């Protein structure tokens, strides 16, 4: 065949997009995947920072899916562009700070631009959307909206629920057989699991809330706190990466403590210690703590008492904590650890 | 044959950024070229080989000393 029909599939790393790609591949379509890195993505690694028993292997799920499918995967950095979507979503936020509808439109638009670039020559876009699967972004009325506002129009095929939607260009042109597509709807995952097993997949990643941290209540709270403290909505990549780890404790609007909860997180925070005032107990084993903001020396002493509370010296009369400023100045503080009740719940972000 | 590899410094970047930078760099390199990717995120040891497999590039070797990772890729 001279010119095979080509589709770009949005691959999140979850089951639905994996199945959607597979359904069209089964029809002889050449599929390549795209995956967008917004900075909020839930990947194997960020999940694996905390050393939990029985955790999933460290891997990038989107790449893993591509490997299972035997397709190429193009990972695209959209960190900067994504700010516009998250800071000012035209269609608003979902349950938390997840701008799912704007996000979907943005991603389909980006996939379209990538796939239809002169050299790439793709014919249509595939997503794993299912009507009724997500209350905000995957509804019967949002499906045409995403197709229209992304500019993909009827070149956007949702193989898992296509039978519940009007025929798209790939179906009308006979590039894919509508009868071999599916009519899934609602939140029931059974049809997807059956299809996965039929394809011989017996392992898949299934993030609970969605494909990114923005659907997580706690993460969204930390992000809202960051915006409150700054007095405006904005962020840098480091800010949002740091929201993924540690205990976040804000004793006052002008500074926040990020305290590692275990070895993996302490190691992760190590990578940032030159950018922040960093505290670490020296008389006892204990966590690394970064201070975000402009702490005074009284604030640093208070932070040291918090750090001491989370150290092995929590029951000792005094703990020595080293504090290192960004300019390399280092001091040691002898402090009395806070009792758990002395740290107000309101400080915990 | 002794050829000098191209070098990509992805140290300090967290996954998947080292993979994205590698992908973008490779797009501009000719087949047969060797590329040494320097990184510090241990996730790179998993992700870069996986990315090479799905794109058909050859992973020549990967080495780690201390926190530093070096992965040599031959572009196909
Ligand atoms: S969960 Fe996150 S990545 Fe997925 S559509 Fe919503 S905002 Fe976008």
Q: What are its keywords?
A:
heterodimer; A: 349 residues; alpha/beta; Rossmann fold; 2 domains; six-stranded antiparallel beta sheet; five-stranded parallel beta sheet; 12 helices; 32% helix; elongated; B: 76 residues; alpha+beta; Translation Initiation Factor IF3; four-stranded mixed beta sheet; 2 helices; binds iron/sulfur cluster
What does this structure look like?
The complex is a heterodimer of chains A (349) and B (76). Chain A has 349 residues and is of the alpha/beta class. Chain A folds into 2 domains: 6-212, HUPs (Rossmann fold), CATH 3.40.50.620; 245-347, no CATH class. Helices cover 32% and strands 16% of the residues of chain A. Chain A is built from 12 helices and 11 strands. Chain A has helices at residues 15-25, 44-48, 61-69, 79-87, 100-115, 142-150, 169-172, 190-198, 217-230, 237-242, 263-270, 297-309, and strands at 6-10, 30-37, 73-77, 124-126, 156-157, 247-252, 255-259, 277-281, 289-293, 319-324, 330-335. Chain A is elongated. The model of chain A has no long low-confidence stretch (mean pLDDT 92). In chain B, a hairpin with a 2-residue loop joins β3 (58-65) and β4 (68-74). Chain B has one domain: Translation Initiation Factor IF3 (2-Layer Sandwich). Chain B is globular and about 30 Å long. With 76 residues, chain B is of the alpha+beta class. In chain B, 29% of the residues lie in helices and 34% in strands. Classes of the chains: A alpha/beta (349), B alpha+beta (76). Chains A and B meet through α3 and β3 of A and α1 and α2 of B. Iron/sulfur cluster (SF4) binds at residues 98-100, 103-104, 137, 210-212, 214-215 of chain A. Residues 98-100, 103-104, 137, 210-212, 214-215 of chain A line the site of iron/sulfur cluster.
Indicate the topology.
The complex is a heterodimer of chains A (349) and B (76).
Chain A: E1 6-10, H1 15-25, E2 30-37, H2 44-48, H3 61-69, E3 73-77, H4 79-87, H5 100-115, E4 124-126, H6 142-150, E5 156-157, H7 169-172, H8 190-198, H9 217-230, H10 237-242, E6 247-252, E7 255-259, H11 263-270, E8 277-281, E9 289-293, H12 297-309, E10 319-324, E11 330-335
Parallel strand pairs in A: 1-2, 1-4, 2-3, 4-5
Antiparallel strand pairs in A: 6-7, 7-9, 8-9, 8-10, 10-11
Helix pairs in contact in A: 5-6
Chain B: E1 6-10, H1 17-26, E2 34-39, H2 44-55, E3 58-65, E4 68-74
Parallel strand pairs in B: 1-2
Antiparallel strand pairs in B: 2-4, 3-4
The structure holds iron/sulfur cluster.
